[in-house]
Specification:
By secondary structure, this protein is mainly α. It contains 19 helices and no strands. Helix 3 packs antiparallel against helix 5. The chain starts with about 25 loop residues before the first helix and ends in a 10-residue tail after the last helix. The longest helix is centred in the first third of the chain and has 36 residues.
C-alpha cells in the first residue's frame, strides 16, 4: 500500500487558546468535566448494546433459535472490538498531529452516529440478513470511535493535570466509564420494570440508542469548547507524519512501553468486560436471575467501582502505580473461583460478587491512565497508547463475553475462569519488571 493511501488528511478545528502554565484550577476542572461527560456518553453508547442484547438479539437474527441469536449478537459485539486498534491508530495519529481536542470531538460524533443507526435499523423479519449487516456496520463505527476515545482521553487528562495529581486526574475517565455504564444499566432496569418482555423485544430496546444519539450531540458541543493541552502545544518536537510506515517505526522504537501497556491491559480488560459489563446478562441467561433484578444488582455493583476509582487514583499518587497493579493481580488470582461460587440464582449474590470484583478492578484501573501516559513521550503518546490499548481490548475484551457464554453453555465455564487467573498472573510477572512511573516528567 502506498504511503499516499495511508496518510490521513484532516482539517483542524477553529483555534482555542491553549492552557497557560498558570491556568486556573477552575479552567482545568471545566476541561476535566468536559472530557469525562463525553467519555460517559461514549461508554453509554458502547455498553447499551451489551445491556440490551438479550432483548434485541432475535430482532436481527433468526428468532427460531434464541441461543444462536444471542451468540450471534455477542459475536458482533466482539467484532466491534476489532475496530478499536484501528480507531486507536487513526484517532491517536489525529490527536498527535492535530490536537487532543480535535480527536476527542470527532470520536464522540462517530459514537452518536453508530447509536442512531442501531436505533433506526430494520429487523430480520423486515429485510432478512440485511438487518444483521446494518447492525454490524453500526458496531464497526462505534468500535472505531471507542478505540480513539480512550488513548486521547488518558493523554489529555494526564497532560492537563496539576502537579502531584496525575494519578487522580488520569483515573477519571474510569468515572466516565462507570457513569456511562451505570446509566445504560439503569435504563435497562427501568425499562424491564415498566415494559413487558414483548414490549422490550418489540420497541423498548430502541429507546436507549435514541438517547445515546441525543446525548452525543450534547457531548459534541462541550468538547468543542475545550482548550488544547498545553503540554501538546508547547512540545519541542514536531508531530510525526500520519503513515503506516512511520506508525510501525514508532511502535518499534517504543516497544518497551508497548509491551508494558499491552500486558497491563490484557487481564484488566478481560476481567472488566466479564464482571463489570456482562455479569448481569450472564446471571440472567445462565443462572436464571430475573432481568430486572439482575440489572439492579449490576447497577449497585458498578456503583462500588464508581466510588472507589478516585480514591484509588489519589492513592496511586501517594504510594506509586506499580504496587497497586501488583496487588490487583494477586487479589483477583486468589478470588476468581470464590467469586464464581458467590454468583448464583439470587440478585443479592450477583451484587456481592460484582461488588468484590469492582473493588479489585478499581485497584487495577485507576493507575493505568497515568502509567500509560508516563511511559510514552508527548509527540507519539496518543498513538502508542491508543493502538496498544485498543488492540489488546479487541482481543481480550471483545472475546470475553462470547467465550464466557459459549463455554458456560457446554459446561466448561471453569476453563474461562482459569484463563482469567492465568492472565492475572502473567500481568503480575510483567508488573514486577516494570519501573515505577510515578513522578516521571510528562513534558
Amino acid at each position: 500500500m502506498s504511503e499516499e493511501l495511508t496518510t490521513i488528511s484532516v482539517g483542524p478545528l477553529p483555534r482555542v487558546p491553549p492552557l497557560a502554565q498558570g491556568v486556573s484550577r477552575r479552567r482545568r476542572a471545566k476541561d476535566l468535566v468536559a472530557v469525562n461527560i463525553g467519555n460517559a456518553i461514549e461508554w453509554f453508547d458502547w455498553n447499551v448494546y451489551a445491556i440490551f442484547a438479550p432483548f434485541f438479539a432475535v430482532q436481527f437474527f433468526n428468532r427460531s433459535d434464541p441461543l444462536s441469536a444471542m451468540l450471534s449478537t455477542l459475536a458482533i459485539f466482539g467484532v466491534g472490538f476489532l475496530m478499536r486498534p484501528i480507531g486507536g491508530w487513526v484517532f491517536g495519529l489525529i490527536a498527535d498531529k492535530r490536537g487532543r481536542r480535535f480527536s476527542l470531538t470527532l470520536a464522540i460524533l462517530l459514537a452518536a452516529a453508530g447509536s442512531l443507526i442501531i436505533a433506526l435499523a430494520p429487523t430480520f423479519t423486515q429485510v432478512g440478513v440485511l438487518a444483521s449487516a446494518v447492525l454490524l456496520m453500526a458496531r464497526l463505527i462505534q468500535g472505531l470511535s471507542h478505540g480513539g476515545e480512550t488513548g486521547s482521553a488518558f493523554t489529555y487528562l494526564a497532560e492537563i493535570s496539576p502537579d502531584g495529581k496525575r494519578g487522580l486526574w488520569a483515573s477519571t475517565p474510569w468515572v466516565g466509564v462507570a457513569i456511562g455504564t451505570m446509566t445504560a444499566t439503569g435504563l435497562g432496569f427501568a425499562f424491564t420494570t415498566l415494559l413487558t418482555a414483548d414490549q422490550m423485544s418489540d420497541f423498548g430496546w430502541r429507546i436507549p440508542f435514541f438517547v445515546g444519539a441525543a446525548l452525543g450531540v450534547y457531548g459534541l458541543v462541550i468538547r468543542f469548547r475545550m482548550a488544547e493541552s498545553d503540554v501538546y502545544e508547547q512540545q519541542d518536537e514536531s508531530p510525526h507524519s500520519l503513515t503506516l510506515k512511520d506508525t510501525w517505526r514508532i511502535l518499534v522504537e517504543h516497544r518497551t512501553a508497548v509491551k508494558y501497556i499491552a500486558i497491563l491491559s490484557t487481564s484488566g480488560v478481560a476481567i472488566f468486560y466479564t464482571w463489570f459489563i456482562f455479569a448481569p446478562s450472564y446471571a440472567t441467561t445462565v443462572h436464571g436471575v430475573p432481568p430486572g433484578q439482575a440489572l439492579l444488582a449490576g447497577l449497585l455493583g458498578q456503583a462500588v467501582f464508581l466510588a472507589l476509582i478516585p480514591v484509588m487514583g489519589a492513592l496511586s499518587d501517594r504510594i506509586g502505580r506499580r504496587k497497586m497493579v501488583f496487588a490487583y493481580t494477586l487479589g483477583f488470582a486468589a478470588l476468581a473461583f470464590p467469586l464464581e461460587l458467590i454468583l448464583g440464582s439470587s440478585a443479592v449474590r450477583l451484587f456481592l460478587a460484582m461488588a468484590v470484583a469492582s473493588t479489585i478492578l478499581a485497584v487495577c484501573c485507576a493507575p493505568l491512565g497515568a502509567i500509560f501516559t508516563e511511559l510514552v513521550p508527548t509527540r507519539v503518546r496518543a498513538t502508542v497508547v491508543g493502538i496498544t490499548y485498543g488492540g489488546f481490548c479487541a482481543v481480550f475484551g471483545g472475546s470475553a463475553p462470547y467465550l464466557n457464554a459459549w463455554l458456560s453453555s457446554v459446561g466448561l465455564h471453569y476453563l474461562f475462569v482459569t484463563a482469567l487467573v492465568g492472565l492475572s498472573l502473567l500481568t503480575a510477572v510483567i508488573c514486577r519488571r516494570m519501573p515505577e512511573t510515578k513522578g516521571t516528567p510528562i513534558r
